[in-house]
């Protein structure tokens, strides 16, 4: 069987230029989030299949890379169902592993706990621009903080990071799952059909109000409920006034504190932000994960044409492990999409040290090579990046290649000149 040189579909080799930017972004993440009090943690890439298939990951649970049992546990001849063959899988996000981690280590962690986690995740998804089957995810989460301070801190930390990476004019879209449910209840949709309604609503940006109305009709919902529901979207504005409108409109089915807290988050972030962005109320924002229980948010970036990050409050997930609910809220940036956008705009990592190339004549005597090695070491001690290479016959092409790698100065060494 012939060996294949291309990576598996949906996965990629990373060349040095991209790796330089990835490392820079990861360092910027650690530095920026560290100043907000987040501590780095790490969880295994393999999780128990029960945790991954707990009906909390939405559509992602259909995309799990599952791992067969090993050794004597794997009995192919007697297996009757998948559970007889599989006991673990590659994680599809970092939130489920974090919840297990906190449940297992809570006694050794501060309260509230502010976690920073970066690592690869895997989804058997259909690859497309900015979407892979193996990709780096970067999450910040605050566990044990029940107030809106968590949401404010998460949005400020994330937007500060994006500002440092020279992103401008993006939008933080924000909504609340409780508002979504109250709007559906007010309109007369049966509670058991809320998820169906939200799946259709999530298509609003693609099919518009009329398209949403058509799909709701196809599902058999009453015209009265559909008209009431979509009538609200025609009147809501994407700002504080929109939140206030729903607070009054839904007063019989929505706790007013939900709207008041959302207003506080928007006003507070807008007042103290350091990056160039807008925060906007978006009643059509749904977020796919079923584990969200309160405020939800996404980063919309025209440069990408979609979302480059998102998150929200998930106060009930940790309770699935412990039997006792713990307040939890998180924000994940689309690391791969951020790196892709930086590469597409020709981003140069700032503040890198000078890069100098030593081109050494072939068959340089050992005593003279030693002098070159000592000179290179002295320059490295002064902060210069020095790359030693044997001089090739096509020296012009060699220099062109090294220039493309960022080398700006060349020193040539010949045995008869040392």
Annotation keywords:
418 residues, alpha/beta, 8-stranded mixed beta sheet, 3-stranded antiparallel beta sheet, 14 helices, globular
Give the helix proportion (percent range).
25-40%
| Rg measurement, Å | 27 Å
Q: Cα distance, first to last residue?
A: 53 Å
Sequence stretches where pLDDT stays below 50 over 5 or more residues: none
Shape descriptor: globular
Q: How would you describe the oligomerization state of the chains in this entry?
A: single chain
Question: Structural class of the helices, strands and pairings?
Answer: alpha/beta
Q: Output the strand order for the largest sheet.
A: 1-5-6-11-10-9-7-8
Strand content: 15-25%
Query: What does the largest sheet look like?
Result: 8 strands, mixed
Averaged pLDDT, please?
91
């Amino acid at each position: 069987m012939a060996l294949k040189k291309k990576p598996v579909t949906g996965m990629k080799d990373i060349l040095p230029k991209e790796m330089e930017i990835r490392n820079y972004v990861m360092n910027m993440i650690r530095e920026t989030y560290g100043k907000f009090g987040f501590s780095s943690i790490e969880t295994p890439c393999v999780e128990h299949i029960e945790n991954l298939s707990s009906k909390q990951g939405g559509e992602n649970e259909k995309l799990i890379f599952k791992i067969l049992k090993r050794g004597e546990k794997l009995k192919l001849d007697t297996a009757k169902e998948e559970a007889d063959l599989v006991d673990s899988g590659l994680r599809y996000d970092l939130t489920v592993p974090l919840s297990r981690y906190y449940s297992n280590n809570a006694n050794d962690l501060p309260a509230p706990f502010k976690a920073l986690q970066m690592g690869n995740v895997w989804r058997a998804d259909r690859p497309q621009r900015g979407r892979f089957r193996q990709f780096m995810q970067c999450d910040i989460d605050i566990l044990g903080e029940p107030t809106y301070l968590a949401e404010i801190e998460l949005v400020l930390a994330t937007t500060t990071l994006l500002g440092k990476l020279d992103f401008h004019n993006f939008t933080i879209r924000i909504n609340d799952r409780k508002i979504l449910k109250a709007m559906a209840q007010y309109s007369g949709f049966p509670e058991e059909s809320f998820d169906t309604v939200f799946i259709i609503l999530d298509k609003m940006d693609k099919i518009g109000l009329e398209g949403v109305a058509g799909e709701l009709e196809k599902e058999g919902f009453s015209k009265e409920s559909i008209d009431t529901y979509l009538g609200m979207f025609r009147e809501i504005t994407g700002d504080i006034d929109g939140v206030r409108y729903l607070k009054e409109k839904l007063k019989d089915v929505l706790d007013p504190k939900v709207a008041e807290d959302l207003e506080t988050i928007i006003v507070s972030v807008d007042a103290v932000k350091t990056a160039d962005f807008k925060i906007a109320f978006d009643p059509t924002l749904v977020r796919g994960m079923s584990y969200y229980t309160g405020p939800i948010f996404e980063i919309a970036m025209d440069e990408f044409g979609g979302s480059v990050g998102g998150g929200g409050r998930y106060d009930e997930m940790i309770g699935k492990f412990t039997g006792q609910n713990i307040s939890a809220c998180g924000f994940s940036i689309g690391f791969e999409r951020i790196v892709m956008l930086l590469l597409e705009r020709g981003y140069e990592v700032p503040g890198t040290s000078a890069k100098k190339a030593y081109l050494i004549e072939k068959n340089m005597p050992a005593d003279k090579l030693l002098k070159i090695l000592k000179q290179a070491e002295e320059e490295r001690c002064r902060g210069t990046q020095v790359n030693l290479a044997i001089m090739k016959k096509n020296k012009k092409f060699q220099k062109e290649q090294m220039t493309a790698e960022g080398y700006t100065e060349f020193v040539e060494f010949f045995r008869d000149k040392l």
